[in-house]
TrEMBL record:
Identification of the protein by name: START domain-containing protein
All copies of domain START, residue ranges: 1-211
Signal peptide bounds: 1-23
Lineage: Bacteria, Pseudomonadati, Pseudomonadota, Gammaproteobacteria, Oceanospirillales
Source organism per UniProt: Isoalcanivorax beigongshangi
InterPro entries: START-like_dom_sf, START_dom_prot, START_lipid-bd_dom, START_lipid_transfer
TM stretches of this protein: none
Keywords: Signal
Amino acid sequence: MMRCAALSLFLTLLLPLPVAAQAADGDWQLASLRDGIEVHVRQRPDSALKAFRGVTRFQLDDPYTLVAALNDYPHYPRWLHYVDAAEEFQRSSPLERQLRLVVRLPWPLQHREAILRATVTQEQPPPLARVTVALESDNSLYPAQSGFVRFPMMRGVLTLQLLGAQQVEMTYQLELDPGGRVPSWLANLALANAPYYTLLRLQRTLSRPEYADAGADIPYLQLRSAPEPP
């Protein structure tokens, strides 16, 4: 009990400073704003667990830089909060992929694994292109691994919205069922920081040289307008 209480205190200290709650896109409520990153929270009608969403803007000379980072699964632990390993184990097409994420949670929570379908959709053309990566758990895709608890449910959305003037708005939304015996209040505390730290670390990651000039390797998305004919 003392260790669980200590963990609760630790997670509470990590929570972002609250701001005045206000309506944000329907029933989303603004929970924090720091470093240019908005974190919104929404109570799920079917669960005591909450959904969380982070929104920020990146200044990028090349929007394909962001796509290249999202395609670099072995290096997801650099920026995706709580994720210790990631792999793409199957690909139906560049727009349909299957992923496995290893999530290492603070003691006393047992480590988790998530088996996900990733579906990429381009919803708007350039110059204001919009791309959505929808993540949905499907545990039938991959055999269970010993030492991990499977997430019974995980849903996430990554959205890239080009705004012009080399600005990209990035949205990261997450809701899940952690499985096992995890109190909902503890799961909500642990999840509350995921959007903030994910977007903060992703912004720092985008400056890495391996993600520069990536457009030629990503022909399935059109993020730049075609050049004017001579």
